[in-house]
Write a structure and sequence with these properties.
By secondary structure, the chain is α/β, with parallel strands linked by helices. Helices cover 24% and strands 30% of the residues. It has a six-stranded mixed β-sheet, with helices on one face. Strands 7-8-9-10-13-14 form a six-stranded mixed β-sheet. A two-stranded antiparallel sheet has the order 11-12. The model has no long low-confidence stretch (mean pLDDT 96). It binds zinc ion.
Length: 204
């Protein structure tokens, strides 16, 4: 599998991954610099099948229209998303890029339309749900600390320790991590009660 993390401005990460045999590819979070993504996809002779949004915030979706106009790919978002999309997904859905599998995990909390993508059961693209050493804000419109608690402690926490974590922003000490490492070092994943988590998230 081809897999590339691309640093955009304002610390956003975009991702391109592809089945190198069939050349089918997907972009996750087009963000601001679509031309950089377009260059990579063309250089590799990939066919862009999906443009997937981890959630509807504009710093993640800004390049969708440009990418779609060049490649005609389908914009994919959670069914509750208010952004423009062509294909709705929900928890448990499975997409494929050639032989590469993409499992959809619904992880609300930062927004009500947040999803994480588990690629080939090995790499987790976490959007603004989980960062290296942090989690996403829950105080923006559509945010909900109780949902974030469930998404982090009842969903992502249960994934295999070896699963690699690729966040939507470069906010941590390094650009990627693993579930096992985050369970040990990320203070937002510390087991605590729902009440304690809500109190913790409300602190400035
Ligand atoms: Zn966001």
């Amino acid at each position: 599998m081809f897999f590339k993390q691309i640093q955009q401005h304002s610390d956003n990460f975009s991702y391109i991954f592809a089945d190198e045999n069939t050349k089918e590819a997907a972009v996750v979070d087009s963000s601001f610099n679509a031309s950089q993504l377009i260059k990579t996809i063309k250089a590799k002779c990939f066919t862009l099948k999906y443009i997937i949004n981890t959630h509807g915030h504009s710093d993640h979706t800004a390049g969708n229209i440009e990418l779609k106009s060049v490649f005609g790919a389908k914009v994919v978002a959670h069914i509750l998303s208010k952004s423009n999309f062509d294909m709705a997904v929900k928890d448990g859905d499975l997409l494929t890029i050639g032989k590469v599998s993409i499992n959809i995990l619904y992880t609300p909390g930062h927004t009500f339309d947040s999803i994480c993508l588990l690629i080939d059961n090995k790499k987790l693209l976490t959007g603004d749900t989980l960062f290296v050493g942090e989690c996403g804000r829950t105080d923006l419109p559509g945010g909900n600390p109780k949902s974030m608690f469930d998404s982090l402690l009842h969903k992502l926490y249960k994934l295999d320790d070896a699963v690699e974590v690729y966040p939507g922003h470069d906010y941590g000490s390094k650009p990627s991590s693993t579930i096992g490492e985050e369970k040990k070092t990320n203070y937002t994943l510390k087991p605590r009660s729902l009440e304690a988590f809500i109190e913790f998230m409300s602190q400035p």
